[in-house]
Amino acid sequence: MSSISKILDHNKAFVEQSRYQEFQTTKYPDKKIVILTCMDTRLLELLPKAMGLRNGDAKIIKNAGAVISHPFGSIMRSILVAIYELKAEEVCVIGHHGCGMIGLQSSSILEKAKQNGTDENLIDTLTNAGIDLDKWLTGFPCVEESVSNSVRLIKNHPLSPNHIPVHGMIIHPETGKLDLVIDGYNSTNLPESGKRGCS
Ligand SMILES: [Zn+2]
To answer: Is 92 flagged in the annotation as binding?
Structure first.
């Protein structure tokens, strides 16, 4: 049986047995926070449990590496929607040790795309059209720097309200231990670009 068939079978029973009732809540985050974190599978249940979060407590935005690639892309838009429309009052960027985006090279993805049928000429066409595939598909050297960059981008965004604290954290993907690396309550804590290097 395919994964989707199993999911749909589970879902039928879940709804029929009213197991959704314990999850009922509103669209507004009870703990008034919005979290940007990584899509890593190890964090699926670990991160909310390690933070004591239940359904309804927080807005959680996920992508590969908890990276904001563009100040006017969908991640930053989601953070602004959480703040202005959904009453979030604090932002947490949470990277993790052992992230798949650490040291990721664009060549690795482009090579696999070619092996899966992407025409090399198409890659050249995209590059000639000004799409910087290398930059887009390259990860980061270390999680500390990545979290720091995301925090700085959110804090300095022209549409971010000044009073909203933006915290930077790193979670251990096995123990769930959280380290606060940037304390958003103390804005003088915000490192300048490139100041929080990789150890
Ligand atoms: Zn990750």
So the answer is: no
% residues pLDDT > 70 (the chain): 93
Distance (angstroms) between ligand 1 centre and the Cα of 51 equals 17
Q: How far is CA 13 from CA 1, 3, 20, in A?
A: 17, 16, 11
On whether 40 is known to bind a ligand per the annotation, the reply is yes
Q: How far is the CA of 26 from the centre of ligand 1 (A)?
A: 28
The CATH homologous superfamily for domain 23-100+141-189 is Carbonic anhydrase (3.40.1050.10)
Distance CA 164, CA 111 (A): 42
Tokens (6 digits) for 71: 């100040």
Band (pLDDT 50/70/90 cuts) for residue 196 is low
Q: What's the gap in Å between 36 CA and the centre of ligand 1? A: 11
Residues of the chain with CATH 3.40.1050.10: 23-100+141-189
